[in-house]
Specification:
It is a single chain. The protein has 665 residues and is mostly beta strands. The chain folds into three domains: 106 residues, Response regulator (Rossmann fold, 3-Layer(aba) Sandwich); 227 residues, no CATH class; 268 residues, TM1070-like (Hypothetical Protein Tm1070, Chain: A, Sandwich), CATH 2.60.290. The protein has ten helices and 43 strands. It has a six-stranded mixed β-sheet with strand order 3-4-2-1-5-6, with no helix packed on it. Strand 8 and strand 9 form a beta hairpin. The longest helix is centred in the N-terminal third of the chain and has 13 residues. It is globular and about 85 Å long.
Length: 665
């Protein structure tokens, strides 16, 4: 059963460009489902139940979105009235849509106008409403005015830059070491870089049962300055016990970006738990995919964070192996804003790597995290990705090669071979993807292609593992630099279909510890002046996106993380993918910033076109330069000559590490 709300608009830019080069997420569901809105809406509904017959006036087609949260069947409805002629002929709860002109004849005691900013139009149509009827609208459930960026347009996306983060805090100390589990949201005040004068965060923490256990406002530091929200600090500040739940983040009075971007780190258990993950993608989807099944020695848990102010009914969330039809349903109800840890192994006991798991989500929650725990005690968290339901095969993609060379490229790093094992897995990420006609190219850091493998037209049900070390052995290939990257590319030599939504997962293992990390991302067209649809994508301007600004968070998570193995270091793997020949070398600046967002050191590096560059903070910047950050700095990867793709991670000596893709602002 899918929640009947609109959460994501397809890439239709006819109404104007937005950051990310897409139409972005819908704002209405965020406005209706906001934690501050929900109690006001419930109170309004309780009042209307006692009013007598209530007429619904729905000028914008919002009724299904509102009803999904606040059950209009509880009211004594006097009728359903619309303003748009195209809405006539529809019905709601057994009431046929009637034109607004007929509303007064129904003699309702109250009228609920299902729109915001009602004052803009209400005066001109007031005479069509009964004079003695109570008139209420969605303006009666608005959040406070001081939280709005654009007070003239309530549903402006900049008014609802919201997101969820999975927060876990478990206390545990023994022999002076930290054996607990902690989480940390890290980002920077990028809104002030776009002109926001007094940006701030409104935050609410919900526990597993959906109970709000903390609420506060967080003033942001200066423009570009980094900040973090740590579960241990929250626990101490509010006197809390252990918790697992959702941190609701609302960036208010902002500019430039309506997306809350962050890196989520998990750490603890004496260094055995170290993991990082990308932001949650604030738009709940019908399906998610890209979550692999575990190995024999692994337990996999999926965290479901109800992102709405109403329960998720039993058997509304389920799992199946990608390509299989049988869905195993989760039998429990999940309360509003509640969090549940779902055992993937219990629901899909037959699933084993490299099987891939599809999540039937029904638009109930944002992009979820999954945790994998190995028998050796290592623990990691990664995220699934949105599986698109609106894509069809694109017959034009096979012809892109004529003008756009490689076209869509899905790059994943090959980490230094002496330290890590790198394994890749092409991943279906749209419900209409029945096959993936692709090849893999292994490319040295220098940009030299050292091996090519045609993977065929991979059927949806099959998972084809690409193990870099095995591939090197089979081909007798060498990576002269000791590292590089793999590109997954469409290949139509045997025919096949494609939609441009090519994804692949990378699983990386530290040889010294056996600790693993996983990351997943989708293909883009890189570094070509010609444009196809919204590619090459840009996050700061209209396509083509031909420049780079990536955020690399640095700094120790906890003093307990540093040990005799070398301490906590930051690593970064930059890839310079090129669909067509571009600048022979990049002109990349690595700019180290301090806790106030001010540059303290800079290095220039050159990356070969089609190549990559792996580096460590401890090797790139001197100890004196790193000390200037105060342990709370970050690095901006900046390049005005080309678009780079990057991966960031933390390295806890030979005990553990983490890795995920980077983000920019």
């Amino acid at each position: 059963m899918t929640l009947q709300i609109e959460t994501f608009k397809n890439a239709d830019l006819s109404q104007g460009w937005r950051p990310g080069n897409n139409a972005g997420g819908a704002t209405l569901f965020k406005a209706l489902g906001h934690p501050l809105t929900a109690p006001r809406a419930h109170a309004l509904m309780d009042e209307l139940k006692d009013e007598g017959p209530v007429a619904l006036f729905d000028p914008m087609g919002y009724v299904s979105n509102f009803h999904a949260y606040y059950d209009l069947s509880k009211l004594d409805l006097a009728g359903y009235f619309v303003q748009r002629m195209e809405d006539l002929g529809g019905t709601f709860l057994g009431h046929e849509a009637q034109p607004l002109n007929a509303l007064k004849a129904g003699a309702p005691k109250a009228v609920l106008i299902l729109t915001f900013d009602t004052d803009k139009t209400f005066a001109s149509i007031r005479h069509l409403f009964p004079e003695d009827a109570r008139i209420v609208s969605l303006d009666d459930i608005r959040i406070d005015e001081d939280m709005l960026t654009n007070k003239k347009n309530y549903l402006d996306p900049l008014n609802f830059a919201t997101n969820f983060a999975l927060m876990r805090e478990k206390e545990g100390k023994a022999n002076g070491a930290d054996h607990g589990i902690h989480t940390r949201v890290a980002t920077a005040n990028y809104w002030a870089l776009h002109g926001a004068e007094t940006p701030e965060l409104w935050l609410a923490l919900f526990d597993e049962k959906g109970e709000q256990i903390a609420e506060w406002r967080e003033g942001l530091p200066g423009a570009g300055a980094p900040f973090a929200i740590d579960s241990g600090e929250i626990r101490e500040r509010f006197g809390l016990g252990d918790f697992t739940g959702s941190l609701f983040i609302h960036a208010i009075r902002i500019a430039g970006h309506d997306v809350v971007k962050y890196a989520l780190d998990m750490y603890g258990e004496d260094g055995l738990a170290l993991s990082c993950s990308h932001d949650a993608n604030a738009w709940p989807a019908d399906f998610y995919a890209g979550m692999p099944a575990g190995d024999e020695d692994e337990e996999v848990t999926l965290f479901i964070q109800n992102s709405h102010p109403m329960p998720i009914p039993p058997r509304s969330v389920g799992l199946n192996i990608v390509g299989a039809q049988d869905v195993s349903w989760f039998e429990e109800e999940i309360p509003p804003f509640g969090t549940r840890a779902m055992s993937v192994d219990a629901l899909l006991p037959q699933a084993r790597w490299p099987d891939q798991v599809e999540i039937a989500a029904g638009r109930y929650f944002v992009r979820p995290r999954y945790e994998v725990k190995r028998r050796n005690g290592n623990r990691r968290i990664a995220h699934a990705n949105v599986e698109r339901t609106d894509l069809k095969p694109d017959p034009h993609i096979p012809d892109l090669e004529k003008h756009m060379g490689k076209g869509y490229i899905m790059p994943l790093p090959v980490l230094p071979l002496g330290e890590f094992r790198s394994v890749m897995l092409p991943t279906p990420m749209a419900t209409e993807q029945h096959e993936l006609p692709i090849r893999a190219e292994m490319i040295d850091a220098s940009g030299e292609t050292v091996a090519v493998k045609f993977l065929g037209r991979i059927p949806r049900r099959e998972s084809v593992e690409v193990d870099v070390e095995s591939w090197i052995a089979e081909e007798g290939a060498k990576l002269p630099s000791g590292y590089g990257h793999v590109e997954f590319l469409y290949d139509f030599r045997e025919g096949g279909e494609a939609d441009g939504w090519l994804h692949a997962l990378g699983r990386f293992e530290q040889k010294a510890s056996g600790h693993r990390a996983e990351t997943i991302f989708g293909a883009h067209i890189y570094n070509t002046a010609t444009i196809y649809k919204d590619e090459p994508q840009s996050y700061t301007n209209k396509p083509p996106g031909l420049t780079t600004r990536l955020f690399l968070r640095v700094g120790a998570l906890s003093a307990d993380m540093s040990d005799e193995d070398g301490g906590l270091d930051t690593m970064c793997h930059l890839i310079y993918p090129a669909s067509t020949p571009w600048h022979e070398k990049s002109s990349t600046l690595l700019i180290l910033h301090d806790a106030e967002g001010k540059p303290v050191a800079e290095r220039k590096v050159e990356i070969a076109c089609g190549g990559s560059f792996h580096w460590r903070l401890s090797e790139m910047f001197t100890a004196a330069e790193r000390e200037k950050t105060g342990g709370a700095g970050y690095v901006i990867v900046r390049d005005t000559t080309c678009r780079l793709f990057g991966f960031h991670g933390l390295l806890n000596g030979t005990k553990s590490f983490c890795l995920d893709h980077m983000f920019g602002f």
